[in-house]
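Entry:
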Amino acid sequence: MGGCYAAGNQLGALLEQHWPGPRNLFCSLVSDIALNFLTDYPTPQAAARLGEARMAAFCKRHAYRGGKPASALLARLRSAPVAPVSLPTPVLTALITAQVQLLRSLQATITQLETTIKKCLARHPRAVLLARLPGVGTINLAQLLAEVGPILDRVESAEQAAAECGAAPVTKASGKAHGVYFRWAANTRARKAVTAFAHNSRMQSPWAAALYANARARGKRNPHATRIVARAWLRVIWACWHNATPYDPDNHPATQRLKAS
């Protein structure tokens, strides 16, 4: 995924310098419709005779679903600033084409990897325990099983799991001094997996959303509030993991209490 983001940023920088028009033409520069546009119109010269009818035909040919009419897309393209530096047309065409091909290759590889991960998840004996967690997707579920699962097998409590995953703070006390600090000594891959899930969960779980909102109301910054949600979820995940009980939102007491209130 990181390689795809990097290649997208490189393409964006190239367009910013030499062909700014398509950079913000569509919702995402690495989307199929944007890459198709750059394949057909890799330079300002290639798009010089692009009119509303041709833009409409292009959108129809590539099944554009962005909701913008061809006239609006064309106006956005024409209102973009003119590049301060111009390259010879063949050179710019070669550069844009190479970058588009790189992105397509990376996207195809990611799709293949996701398919492989999905097949492996289907065979994982414990995937069913966490498959219904709110907001967890294929990749994040795989992260939880691969990075958090071994910790759950090894530690003796949910709180210890939260500490190893970096979701619990460090408390330090000396005499009358007392402080709570970010836990640096943690499994960073497990922390990334569980906080990514915590972030996604608050978009779909009223209980997680309420935990996050409460933490923010107490003055916690977004990363801290997300770790609070992650720590709460780890207690739930611990129970599912060690009781061999698949997560079911209808059997989650805190969620049901929130609904009842």
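The beta strands are 170-174, 177-181.
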